């Protein structure tokens, strides 16, 4: 009991007090050392990292701002440049349009001349005088479709509505109207039929000879050749096709067409849409009837073939594309088909297809003179060589209507 008390006396208490003080001191020292170590290892590197990152971002932002400003200036300069270029391009396109139109006419003329040279066929007097004629602008060219067997019809036309001799030349010089009988050649070159036409030409000087072999089933090809040749020879506002058994008032025709001079692509005539005849052996049979749909269908709208007129742009189109334009059995259908798909204004004027007296006579008395008169039953004036003089007397315009007119 005593020995236990001696071991737990004042000496033992003193050692315990020192140990406590030493532990507290060591704890404080460790804490301070830890604080110092943490401050050096984390705070300083973190601060440096943030500073470097901020500096890099600032530089990047500055670069982007400068790049945007540069691009913005480029866009402004580019916009001004583009506007100027668009304006220049628009003016250039307008100039090219006019130039192309002129070149197309010259190309058509060159092709007609080339065809004559290549085939070795005789070149007409009109074609040899191509350059002087091209300098003159004409109002209209009237091609009167005729055949070798139609001498009496031609003479009846010359005796009624077609001026002759000096008057024919005066019509060209003062009114800008060209009139010619249109005919090709016979299958036997230089044969009796061709020689007869040559003799008639020497007497009247009113033919346009085509590089074409005559034949009833070749009327579409003949019309195409007529338009192509006429475009090459004469620069006119309108090109007219008329049959030699139809009566025409030239002054009234000119006054009618003059209404459409400002329009670029017009197709003037009596528009119709007849049935497509599929049965063989009937008149106007269409061998390619299947192209128009089921049996019993009708053709598209087109002008009747007795008389129609087309503007210069359409005639030039035919001339340039003559080798790829399809020919149907019926000439009037072929012409109408060539304009399908084009921006063409179809003018339906019933004064271009009046009936013979009393129809055209009543209209003339009422002050509504017809442009052309014929019988539908004959696709022309029935027995025209005998009757056309009577039609002219009763339905013809006053002579002053032509010579006092200005086109």
UniProtKB/TrEMBL annotation:
Key word rRNA-binding present: no
Sorted UniProt keywords: Glycosyltransferase, Golgi apparatus, Manganese, Membrane, Signal-anchor, Transferase, Transmembrane, Transmembrane helix
Name of the protein: Hexosyltransferase
Family that this chain belongs to: Belongs to the glycosyltransferase 31 family.
GO CC list: Golgi membrane
Residues covered by the DUF4094 domain: 19-112
Cofactor: Mn(2+)
The enzyme's E.C. designation: 2.4.1.-
GO MF annotation terms: galactosyltransferase activity
Membrane-spanning ranges: none
InterPro entries xref list: DUF4094 (IPR025298), Glyco_trans_31 (IPR002659)
PANTHER family reported in the protein's UniProt record: BETA-1,3-GALACTOSYLTRANSFERASE 4-RELATED (PTHR11214:SF5), BETA-1,3-N-ACETYLGLUCOSAMINYLTRANSFERASE (PTHR11214)
Coarse class of the protein's main subcellular location: Golgi
Pfam families: DUF4094, Galactosyl_T
Subcellular locations according to the entry: Golgi apparatus membrane
Enzyme class: transferase
Membrane topology field: Single-pass type II membrane protein
The protein's annotated pathway: Protein modification; protein glycosylation
């Amino acid at each position: 009991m005593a020995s236990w008390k001696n071991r737990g006396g004042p000496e033992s208490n003193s050692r315990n007090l020192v140990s406590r003080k030493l532990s507290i001191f060591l704890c404080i020292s460790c804490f301070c050392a830890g604080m110092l170590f943490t401050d050096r290892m984390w705070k300083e590197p973190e601060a440096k990292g943030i500073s470097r990152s901020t500096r890099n971002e600032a530089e990047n932002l500055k670069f982007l701002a400068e790049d945007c400003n540069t691009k913005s200036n480029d866009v402004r300069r580019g916009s001004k440049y583009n506007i100027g270029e668009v304006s220049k391009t628009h003016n250039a396109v307008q100039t090219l349009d006019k130039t192309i139109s002129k070149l197309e006419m010259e190309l058509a003329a060159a092709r007609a001349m080339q065809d004559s040279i290549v085939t070795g066929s005789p070149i007409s007097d009109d074609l040899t005088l191509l350059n002087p004629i091209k300098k003159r602008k004409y109002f209209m060219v009237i091609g009167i479709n005729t055949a070798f067997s139609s001498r009496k019809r031609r003479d009846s036309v010359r005796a009624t509505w077609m001026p002759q001799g000096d008057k024919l030349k005066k019509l060209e010089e003062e009114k800008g109207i060209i009139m010619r009988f249109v005919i090709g050649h016979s299958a036997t070159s230089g044969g009796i039929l061709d020689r007869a036409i040559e003799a008639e030409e020497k007497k009247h000087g009113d033919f346009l000879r085509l590089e074409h072999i005559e034949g009833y089933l070749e009327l579409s090809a003949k019309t195409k050749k007529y338009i192509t040749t006429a475009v090459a020879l004469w620069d006119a506002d309108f090109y007219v096709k008329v049959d030699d058994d139809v009566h025409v008032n030239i002054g009234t025709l000119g006054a009618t067409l003059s209404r459409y001079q400002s329009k670029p692509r017009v197709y003037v005539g009596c528009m119709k849409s007849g049935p497509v005849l599929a049965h063989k052996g009937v008149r106007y049979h269409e061998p390619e009837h299947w192209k128009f749909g089921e049996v019993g269908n009708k053709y598209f709208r087109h002008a009747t073939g007795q008389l129609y007129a087309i503007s210069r742009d359409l005639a030039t189109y035919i001339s340039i594309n003559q080798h790829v334009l399809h020919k149907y059995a019926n000439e009037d259908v072929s012409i109408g088909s060539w304009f399908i798909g084009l921006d063409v204004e179809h003018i339906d004027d019933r004064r271009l297809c009046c009936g013979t007296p009393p129809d055209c006579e009543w209209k003339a008395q009422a002050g509504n003179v017809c442009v052309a008169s014929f019988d539908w039953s004959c696709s022309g004036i029935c027995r025209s060589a005998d009757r056309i003089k009577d039609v002219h007397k009763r339905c013809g315009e006053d002579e002053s209507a032509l010579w006092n007119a200005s086109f």
